Amino acid sequence: MIAVVQRVARAHVEVEGAVVGRIERGLLVLLGVAKGDTDEDRTILARKVAEMRIFEDESGRMNRSCLDLGLGVLVVSQFTLCADVRRGRRPGFDPAEAPERAQVAVSAYSQDLRSFGLTVAEGQFGASMAVHLVNDGPATFVLRAS
Questions:
Q1: How far apart, in whole angstroms, are the C-alpha atoms of residue 8 and residue 118?
Q2: Active site includes 80?
Q3: Band of residue 145 on the pLDDT scale cut at 50, 70, 90
């Protein structure tokens, strides 16, 4: 499981021109589910995102988490993060989990974040999405569960 985590001033996702998920200040998480990812991987990654101290405190240091500040998280499934790009010019998507199982894992990931007390918005699994964001910093992190 891989997550690209971006600190944002605001973000939203549109499907066919309609907004399906929106947050103000918080985190945008692009989430890729790979074959072999476990429930434990998912929970570890959710906790890591919830508790990452990447927001500034009163001294200007990255010392506050999304959880500390009561900020939102926008979760967007992105199977392309699991692509194998080591050879050739065309990405291979064999490492990505099957859509049916990936959808369950993404929903469970969002629920894990909610269980930590975060407000979570989501993209629409399997849809062609337009992701709009105002990156804050910019501050972008790549996390792997295993």
A1: 15
A2: yes
A3: confident
List the catalytic residue out of 38, 55, 78, 93: 78
Residues 4/135, Cβ–Cβ less than 8 Å: no
- pLDDT for the residue 98: 96
Q: What does the alpha-carbon distance between residue 65 and residue 49 come to, in Å, rounded to a whole number?
A: 8
Contacts of 41 (CB under 8 A, 6+ apart): 1, 145, 146
Residues 73, 79, 82, CA angle at the centre, nearest 5°?
Answer: 110
Q: Which tens digit of pLDDT belongs to each residue from 45-95?
A: 999 999 999 999 999 999 999 999 999 999 999 999 999 999 989 999 999
Annotated catalytic residue within 38, 43, 55, 79: 79
3-state SS class at 2: strand
Active site residue 124: no
Is 43 considered catalytic here? no
How far is the C-alpha of 55 from the C-alpha of 66, rounded, in Å?
A: 7
- The amino acid that residue 36 corresponds to is G
